[in-house]
Amino acid sequence: MSHSGSFASDNTAGAHPDVLAAMARVNTGHAPAYGYDEHTERTRLLLRRALGESAQPFFVFGGTGANVTALDAVLLPQDCIITAATAHIQVDECGAPERHIGCKLLPVETPDGKLTPALVGPHIKGVGFEHHAQPRVISISQSTEYGTVYTPEEVEALSEFAHSRRLLLHVDGARIANAAASLNVPLKAITSDAGIDLLSLGITKNGAVGAEAVVFFREEPAKRFKYVRKQGMQLPSKMRFVAAQFEALFTDDLWRRNAAHANAMARRLAEGVRGAPGVTITQQVEANAVFATLPKNRIAPLQEKFFFYVWDEATSEVRWMTSWDTSPEEVDAFVAEVGSGKWGGGGGGGGN
Amino acid sequence: MSHSGSFASDNTAGAHPDVLAAMARVNTGHAPAYGYDEHTERTRLLLRRALGESAQPFFVFGGTGANVTALDAVLLPQDCIITAATAHIQVDECGAPERHIGCKLLPVETPDGKLTPALVGPHIKGVGFEHHAQPRVISISQSTEYGTVYTPEEVEALSEFAHSRRLLLHVDGARIANAAASLNVPLKAITSDAGIDLLSLGITKNGAVGAEAVVFFREEPAKRFKYVRKQGMQLPSKMRFVAAQFEALFTDDLWRRNAAHANAMARRLAEGVRGAPGVTITQQVEANAVFATLPKNRIAPLQEKFFFYVWDEATSEVRWMTSWDTSPEEVDAFVAEVGSGKWGGGGGGGGN
Amino acid sequence: MSHSGSFASDNTAGAHPDVLAAMARVNTGHAPAYGYDEHTERTRLLLRRALGESAQPFFVFGGTGANVTALDAVLLPQDCIITAATAHIQVDECGAPERHIGCKLLPVETPDGKLTPALVGPHIKGVGFEHHAQPRVISISQSTEYGTVYTPEEVEALSEFAHSRRLLLHVDGARIANAAASLNVPLKAITSDAGIDLLSLGITKNGAVGAEAVVFFREEPAKRFKYVRKQGMQLPSKMRFVAAQFEALFTDDLWRRNAAHANAMARRLAEGVRGAPGVTITQQVEANAVFATLPKNRIAPLQEKFFFYVWDEATSEVRWMTSWDTSPEEVDAFVAEVGSGKWGGGGGGGGN
Amino acid sequence: MSHSGSFASDNTAGAHPDVLAAMARVNTGHAPAYGYDEHTERTRLLLRRALGESAQPFFVFGGTGANVTALDAVLLPQDCIITAATAHIQVDECGAPERHIGCKLLPVETPDGKLTPALVGPHIKGVGFEHHAQPRVISISQSTEYGTVYTPEEVEALSEFAHSRRLLLHVDGARIANAAASLNVPLKAITSDAGIDLLSLGITKNGAVGAEAVVFFREEPAKRFKYVRKQGMQLPSKMRFVAAQFEALFTDDLWRRNAAHANAMARRLAEGVRGAPGVTITQQVEANAVFATLPKNRIAPLQEKFFFYVWDEATSEVRWMTSWDTSPEEVDAFVAEVGSGKWGGGGGGGGN
Question: What DSSP state is assigned to residue D29?
Fold first, then answer.
């Protein structure tokens, strides 16, 4: 890329060197395929230590696959999933949940990407009425697509609410490392201890090559999952190379160091641009994303130097993501560019 | 593993060192995600050179995903796929094609895993009749699950037959490298030049970490495929690491060298055990698999030393697979064990 | 039923005598099954006269089946449907569209159950972006689930808008007869002349025993539909008995007389209760439904005498439906009950 | 039709007058929709008396819908159904089971359309192995598509076999009346008493207008079925008219009289043509179908006078179906035509 830097997404970053090293380390001789090898078993134990004894992790290829197969294991086709209108499963998976599971998604509008019992409540209706899809899972993203974070108490409030209505709580944890680092709590505190039922645990965005896990905190779906994963096209044959990536990131809490760095870079960026003419930070910067509005005519020139996405054309809201390898220098260069007067004359103003 | 060697499957092997090296090489800085990076583009051109100018390759995670999304791109739900009763899509994908695409599979009995126009013909019926699923694709495995190989002429006969009946020809090429090496022809000769329409191109079994491609030789499905791949949960975000694996194997024909070696090891194994008491080779050994029957009471003792699968309990037929890293010594040790008198006394005999 | 009358739904009504008579009339000897009979052919022509020469009608069993198969014929699984949050396909079909088609539905909040280009516009996004489901169909209900009606101009505005964005316009016409009667226009005026692309044409709620049609105004989906209908479990074998019901209702415009009567009864009901203490009509009464809020404590007592549904528990909004056979006496008895002081003392008040 | 008679299918016949009369009888005033009416409840009890106290019947629209929703209620998507290669669900439903349920069908070759434990056994494999679809249901047709009939003992042997392997037994009873009449046993004898788990109970082919039932003999699927039926687009709104058809046929065993008549006509036809030059009856005539081969050049001339289907072009095998309203005169006219020398000269001979 000819850009000075990329704030497009945490998946434009490469892999942490430890991850590639771990993959090379397991590359010795033959090993049983499909996860029946010792590397996989060892890594599953590593994850159980991090997530709690009830955790049953299964490795899969990708994030969409993790979400879809996790949900598939607990849903009947007539069930529906209540989720934020901004959730990855609703907005960014090309309808994969509906296609593969056959279920309905009920999107809920939120100010900050976060569900609450109060927001979810009105969508739990038609229970027992055969004309309605049956609410069965509440799915939240941790951290959210807006870079906000659920506290352990907020997760627990949702899991208690879910269970009181006979629903399950799913966490899309593509960026759960960023949440745990932001909260400075162990992963357990926002998963098993907070009563969640199932988790998509991502590491791809946090320094892996490509590896995700589905984690169940209940027995039944874990029993079925081997079929669900295979049928969901998410069963890696040479599983040791997926496990190795988790091993690297769960050794000496590399996952936390990577995530904490990304979070720090986002805070640095946010602090840097705050007050720049025409720039308004629109969401709490709690993880590794910064959302801001800026004058429409300044977006394209800025994108010529730094790659990032426009989140909402209508409001000129943009998203700036940092990652495990974002350098302070890149952030500072970006901040300087945003703060410079170079965007040219009129129009821009304070405005939006 | 404590086994002396594994003849279980070519996916119990590890990755070729060049593959890991290529992955490390692309791990520099940020790159656009989802395949919009230069590494991916470069590798797609490399594949087009190997497969013909009409080839449109797309990288995906796994073999089942490659088959399902390739077929999904050309089928309507009411269509059906005619395939060998032994085909991976019929037997080894846990019903993923039916689940995800919604289509019907029509299994055809074959002596050797290979379809012919004569075998397929009677299954093309009910065309235009709304009560029947509509035949739309013939799917063959190259090499087959029995380790047999279609010649270029045989592929061409099938593609001509398919087109004459308004069907398409799909090749499950999880082991197409072994076929091309066995035939000593370029990949083109058994793909574009032979008139096939779509291909699942696997390299995982041939020395990669985990990487497959869907290749279209027609425009329409290629246009749609970006949605099909995403919805099919087969879109790697850090695509460059998948592309790099292809790059390694398509540089200096590493794919062919790996496959030729595996094939040679299978022939060595077959030659070695031919004539051993009670052992009958049941299929032509044309790629990297040896199928044989042997006395039932000899299977378990042999499996204690070498890992392999029983293919058919009823007939005591077993499958021995070789791979890119199988050593002549392993083969010879195995052959010695099979040929030894250690299996004990009675019963066995020549028999089956 | 022991109730004095039912305002629950237009499908609690029975069948018009002409419908049963027509069914008896076609019950003579053998006829080809699955719609290849002369009764079916004759009735299809009758519908074309009513709906316009481009109309291609196909008979199916039920309303959900009509909607799902109609949409299935024009959608790819990665497509999505934009519809009102109150639409039958969104709320009352137990997720059948998602299950059977695999597509996504995007619900749009509306004040009155009616979509407009301005409401739909912001939901058409991510076009060409593989992470998003692709907007392909706008689906409206005519008359709406709120008993409101789209004028021909409003339908045309939506179809022009849809086509300008390369989308199609689907009309769920379970109650299209009520709309046409309300507008006093021919069916053509709100279908083919208004540029719609596909229609679910219902007669069950308007005096039939059970019969619906899918009508295409374009060639391509009509060609595929025979497979879609069969696979969608909507192909009646003794089709003549379904066709006969349409024949009865499309002879001498019985459909319009039935619908006009139902509409008149709804207006009579609305006029009657308007001004009753605590009763507020919440939607325009344009077809055969009356929506109103009334004091919460008055709902149950009223339901003991007359059967009807609570639409929204939170706001005490109820729905009163009239049908082709609702008598003025029933309406008047109901109005008298609503207007009576019998609901008991306090609380009620004007208020809600 | 201008034909002298139709032996095409039992669904080219019309409805028995009692059926239309029963539909008219329930057409009085309003009744709750969707099966919550007294007519439906009364008829469900009637069916329980016929099928056994464990029977839980649910009415649906059509035969394909009955099969698909019945199976959907007991299957997970990774499950598979073992059925005869000639079964309606395999051959005549346009892939609806795969499409809607997502499951795999395993077709078993049979000589006479009948499964046995011995035929099924080899197809129960890969149990517990995640690469294979999991065998879960054995589905038989009673009477079969070849007009053959399972005895109570044969059904019981299959249900015991199924249960011993943790499978369920489904009966596609589109023509179960013909089987019971042929065997001269109560319906119980070949359903609940024979240990079957789920039944598609058809009456459309036996004198109804259009009505089928799904019957469960276990609790769990019955509990879920209300959602499955709605989502499967098989929930009639004015259910009383479907129930009435069952009521007519289950009053004074009209179903048995209709079926016995159809069976008798088939026997009359078979006896009549047996020995005609070139005609060979190919299956036991146990229900209301006659299968025969006859000289190829005689088929078209015969079809000009009587409508029937060619079953297998390759072998010149045809199917002649009789129905509840087939008259002895029609049969005799047909027999006379078959036996006449009019088919012209050479070739025909005894032959095939």
Answer: S
Chain B residues with CB under 8 Å of a chain D CB are: 77-80, 91-95, 98-100, 102-105, 107, 122, 126, 130-133, 314
N-terminal to C-terminal alpha carbon distance within chain C: 31
3-state secondary structure labels for all residues of chain A: CCCCEECCCCCCCCCCHHHHHHHHHCCCCCCCCCCCCHHHHHHHHHHHHHHCCCCEEEEECCHHHHHHHHHHCCCCCCEEEEEECCCHHHHCCCCHHHHHHCCEEEEECCCCCCCCHHHHHHHCCCCCCCCCCEEEEEEEECCCCCCCCCCHHHHHHHHHHHHHCCCEEEEEECCHHHHHHHHCCCHHHHCHHHCCCEEEEECHHHCCCCCEEEEECCHHHHHHHHHHHHHCCCCCCCCHHHHHHHHHHCCCCHHHHHHHHHHHHHHHHHHHHCCCCCCEECCCCCCCEEEEECCHHHHHHHHHHEECEEEEHHHCEEEEECCCCCCHHHHHHHHHHHHCCCCCCCCCCCCC
CB contact under 8 A, A99 and C94: no
pLDDT in tens, A225-260: 999 999 999 999 999 999 999 999 999 999 999 999
Q: Which of D79, D68, D77 is nearest to A73 (CA)?
A: D77
- Cβ contact (<8 Å) for D1 and C96? no
- Whether residues B229 and C130 touch (CB distance < 8 A) is answered with yes
Look at residue A352 and tell me whether its pLDDT is greater than 60. no
- Cβ neighbors of A18 (< 8 A, separation 6 or more) are A207, A248, A249, A251, A254
State the smallest CA–CA distance between residue A172 and chain D in angstroms. 23
Q: For residue B158, with 0-12 CB atoms within 10 Å meaning exposed, 13-18 middle and 19 or more buried, which class applies?
A: buried
- Report d(CA A203, CA D152) in Å as an integer: 58
Give CATH 3.40.640.10 domain extents, chain B.
Answer: 17-249
Q: Which residues pair with B60 in a beta bridge?
A: B212
Question: How would residue A4 be classed by pLDDT, with cut points 50, 70 and 90?
Answer: low
Mean pLDDT of A183-198: 98
Q: Decide: B325 and B13 in contact? Cβ < 8 Å.
A: yes
Report the residue of chain D nearest C16, measured CA to CA: D27
Q: Please check whether the domain covering A17-249 is classified as CATH 3.40.640.10.
A: yes
CA–CA min distance B104, chain D (Å): 6
Query: What residue of A is the nearest CA neighbor of B94?
Result: A231
CA distance A200 to chain C (A): 18
Please give the Cα distance from D279 to D294 (Å, whole number). Answer: 5
Neighboring chain A residues of B6 at a CB cutoff of 8 Å: 30
Fold of A5-12+254-340: Aspartate Aminotransferase, domain 1 (3.90.1150)
**Where along chain B do the CATH 3.90.1150.10 domains lie?**
5-12+254-340
- Contacting chains of C (3 CB pairs or more, <8 Å) are A, B, D
Give A60→chain B minimum CA distance, Å. 10
Say whether A93 and B231 touch across the interface (CB within 8 A).
yes
Which residue from A283, A210, A230 is spatially nearest to A35, judged by alpha carbons?
A: A230
Compute the C-alpha angle C25/C26/C27, nearest 5°.
90
pLDDT in tens, D229-282: 999 999 999 999 999 999 999 999 999 999 999 999 999 999 999 989 899 999
pLDDT higher at B98 or C342: B98
Note whether A322 and A147 are within 8 A (CB): no
Token digits for B135? 């035949």
Short-list B185, B143, A103, C180, CA closest to D77: A103
Of B131, B224, B229, the CB nearest to C230: B131
Cβ <8 Å between C237 and D68: no
